[in-house]
Amino acid sequence: MAQAASKSKNTRRTAPPKGFALFLYRLKKSFSTPTPYLTIAGVGLWIFVYWLLCEGLRVDRFDKIPGPVAVARDWFSPEPFQGISIFTEAYWNHIYVSCRRIAIAFAIATGVGVPLGLFMGWSKKIRDYIFPILETLRPIPILAWVPLAILMLPGFEAPVIFLATLASLFVTTLNTMLGVESIDEEYFRAAGCLGSSNWDIFKNVVVPGALPFIFTGLQISIGVAWFSLVAAEMVSGDHGLGYLIVDSYVNSVTIPMVIGMLTLGLIGWLTSILVRSLGNYLMQWHVRELALQGR
Amino acid sequence: MNVSAPFSEAGTPHKKPEQALKGAISIRNVTKIYDPEGVNVMAVDNASMEIAGGEVCMIVGPSGCGKTTLLNAIAGFHSITSGEIRLDGELLCGPGKPKAKQGADRMVVFQHGALFPWKTLAENVAYGPIVQGALSKSLAMEKARHMLADAGLGDVGNKYPGEVSSGMARRAEIVRALINDPKVLLLDEPYRAMDALTKSIMHESLLETYDRTKVTIFFITHDLEEAIFLGDKVHIVTTRPCQLKKTVNVDIPRPRSYAVQSSEQFRVLMEEVNEAVHEEAIKAFEAGERELA
């Protein structure tokens, strides 16, 4: 019996695990590394310090801020003391409105920024036209665009989306352009030798070669989109998580303010993971290369 | 020409003798002057070379002497300042046409390897026929798998270049070149970064490929043993500006095995090449020192 067990244990796995088995394998493997324990310890420490400052020691000025216990009690309560919890419709509405804005802004910024960056990196002529304008507009802080956006665009929705789009467009375009520039000249030469047309080179060298940089850029750009969205919502919104934060502050209800902040953090993290997973899915060659290097 | 002989002996009537001779390169009085920041640098000065079709031509010379400039001119990556280069009598570049058009008749194998890392080995090999419109995608992939299998790479066709050894990648790159049935194979120190053992395997595989295809090979190297072992002719070029200094004929019969490297004939040839190269290496070294001082 024991022999049989040890035998099955020693059987060499020849085929790599797939699907759910792969997920379990990775989960099991990750628990043999210090990573999950360090993460849990780090989060625990952070919450403890937060609690100590606000609720434990009640340090001066921190006592006005709701501590983790107060926030958690309201956040997960069916009848929240200050009006916002996972059981209230308003909470999910704020999340929905913000996510919808991000989705639109990120889609426009990616749809415009990636092609623009690809062409700018590939053709010096296009780059000479556009790059100086881009470099002049880019350093202008997104908050400085707020008045212009309100004057230019009607309603609540359009200015907010415009601001988030603008911020993330610059990041995406610039990273994509750098991605094309990072491609080794020899790939272009090899493609030329093999009889490629310009369009073939664009499809088979420029786009895939720039992809690692594009996805690094997209991860930053979705972060920037959230950042500027909240800034815009604080100034000119009627819903959304940024609005929730500033509205709670104005009305002196501090718990929804903190709930809004934590929600933003969690959703921002989630969208970042989504972008990264999509990138890994599209760049198997890159993932496998890194894996062989032990990364 | 000794090159046409194997074909007629092997009794392959569908191959005409002139097909066996394809890929003759004639380099006449080629000069290349670079002009970085207003200072003229002469990379190649009045270099002339005749390479017969189906010949393995090894170019040996000190680092930075302009050998690669010559290769780039043939491949169509760079222009030349004067002179002309012809392939089978047709003008590649010359007066009024400073830069040759890149084409699949001259395939380059690069120093650092240039398989597309985002395509599998089979996709890399199939790429040429697909973009040239010579074969449909599925036929090209099928042919690519066959050719990879012939080169001993049948098992790794679905892997990405980053997942296989450098020797395998380099072999796949040569297969990628050969699937286009080129007239000339241009190799720029392709085995430079390899250890001696891998190198010897690569040499044998290249010789085997050559014996099968009789493609003209233009091969740049620093490695003198490699030059003599592989080549029909070893062209020794001077330090910058690059000119032909000496041509050594290697009349070791083919097919060659690694054993010839310990023969007396090999040793004599080695001495002859070494002497000429060493002289240039010293000149290049001294010139380098002067430039820095």
TrEMBL record, chain A:
Residues 95-279 form the ABC transmembrane type-1 domain. Keywords: Cell membrane, Hydrolase, Membrane, Transmembrane, Transmembrane helix, Transport. Signal peptide: none annotated. It is found in: Cell membrane. InterPro entries: MetI-like, MetI-like_sf. The keyword Chloroplast does not apply. The chain crosses the membrane at residues 35-54, 102-122, 142-171, 205-229, 249-275. It holds the Pfam family BPD_transp_1. Gene3D superfamilies: MetI-like. It comes from the Bacteria. GO terms for biological process: alkanesulfonate transmembrane transport. CDD domains: TM_PBP2. It is a multi-pass membrane protein. One of its GO terms (molecular function) is hydrolase activity. Its EC number is 3.6.3.-. GO terms for cellular component: plasma membrane. Probably part of an ABC transporter complex. Probably responsible for the translocation of the substrate across the membrane. Belongs to the binding-protein-dependent transport system permease family. This is Putative ABC MSA transporter membrane-associated permease component. It comes from Candidatus Filomicrobium marinum. The lineage of its organism: Bacteria, Pseudomonadati, Pseudomonadota, Alphaproteobacteria, Hyphomicrobiales.
UniProtKB/TrEMBL annotation, chain B:
Residues 25-264 form the ABC transporter domain. Its EC number is 3.6.3.-. Belongs to the ABC transporter superfamily. GO terms for molecular function: ATP binding; ATP hydrolysis activity. PANTHER family: ALIPHATIC SULFONATES IMPORT ATP-BINDING PROTEIN SSUB (PTHR42788:SF13), TAURINE IMPORT ATP-BINDING PROTEIN-RELATED (PTHR42788). InterPro entries: AAA+_ATPase, ABC_transporter-like_ATP-bd, ABC_transporter-like_CS, ABC_transporter_ATP-bind, P-loop_NTPase. Transmembrane segments: none annotated. Keywords: ATP-binding, Hydrolase, Nucleotide-binding, Transport. It comes from Candidatus Filomicrobium marinum. This is Putative ABC MSA transporter ATP-binding component.
